[in-house]
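Ligand-bound model needed. nicotinamide-adenine-dinucleotide.
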Amino acid sequence: MARVVVLPGDGIGPEVVGAALQVLREVAPDVTLEEHPIGGAAFEAAGDPFPPGTRDALAGADAALLGTVGGAPDSAWNHLPRPQRPESGLLRLRQHLGVFANLRPVQVMPGLEHLSPLRPEIAAGVDLLIVRELLGGAYFDPRRGRGEDAAFNTIGYSRAEIERVGEHAFRAAQERRGVLTSVDKANVLEVSELWRDTVTAQAQAYPRVTLNHEYVDSVATLLVTRPQRYDVLLTENLFGDILSDLAAVLPGSLGLMPSASLGARTGLYEPVHGSAPDIAGQGVANPAGTILSAALLLRYSLGRGSEADRVEAAVRTALAAVPTRDLGGTATTAELTAAVLRAL
Ligand SMILES: NC(=O)c1ccc[n+]([C@@H]2O[C@H](COP(=O)([O-])OP(=O)(O)OC[C@H]3O[C@@H](n4cnc5c(N)ncnc54)[C@H](O)[C@@H]3O)[C@@H](O)[C@H]2O)c1
Ligand SMILES: CC(C)[C@H](C(=O)O)[C@@H](O)C(=O)O
Ligand SMILES: [Mg+2]
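Prediction:
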């Protein structure tokens, strides 16, 4: 029987995960859901943002569903030694699982164009996928350091690291509209030169995919002015972090953005947004990104594509009927969740 490890985390994490669990229990009642602490909550409980108990629970699990980690700007957590901070717990979780390919789909769902702050002719029909490398680059490179008046980080990638995430992007493009845009800064960075060379060589194996290379600064503009030109975007870790928050403008809110992190037996599913300390505890967070992440979990880790389709359709219906506050509506977390459950 399938087993999913549930990691609510901090801030709005428990609120949005609570919503997704209601949906999962409805469409997949046979799946075992097991909650464990992560992030600041785990630091408070166990002195470690990724405690051994949570790590052990992941062994043999089919998937993990994560909420969010991290505190407000003035949180004491931000002054802990870096390995004890909530965000380090999340990075260690990703590394422990070995999930190097982070898929962040961005869709303006039919009938929900009005939720985008962009003009309808720009937003309508947008359906793109950001494939973000998740275990390399500046985030994990050991060549880093901080002195009193100087500090440095390094963006290092090996050909093998680029190839393995590239494979996910090429395969996704092949199954979609066949256009892959590799995002880099090859006009300035050597690491981007290697990225570009590697992806170009890989393209030989995917004759049905058209490969383009674009500079990340230019993509930042085109993503919100001409988003319909993109199908799959492949990018390194830090560029992908930034571009995926920017892409949230397209559907209308960070609260709508799901993600799937793949590459290992146990997939990790989490919304793209953070712990939103400004609205945490108020019951107004948009749970759609987490519910849609649960749909990705059903599709990719549990092989239940039809249930995933059902959940996605229900979210679309619910958002059209009762948009949450981040989308200009008034629905609370509970009201949107109830609407999703009704629409299933
Ligand atoms: N994956 C993660 O766990 C993750 C991701 C990003 C940031 N963080 C952490 O979260 C904390 C806050 O970061 P931040 O403020 O830069 O980013 P954030 O994504 O938490 O919030 C940015 C803005 O978007 C809003 N927002 C985000 N999610 C929403 C939702 N579901 N519904 C409605 N509104 C939503 C917030 O209210 C806020 O105004 C920090 O500690 C940061 O390190 C965690
Ligand atoms: C919280 C942080 C470590 C994380 C990241 O930078 O990967 C987040 O911003 C994300 O996008 O998932
Ligand atoms: Mg981010």
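The chain has two domains: 1-100+263-344, 108-251.
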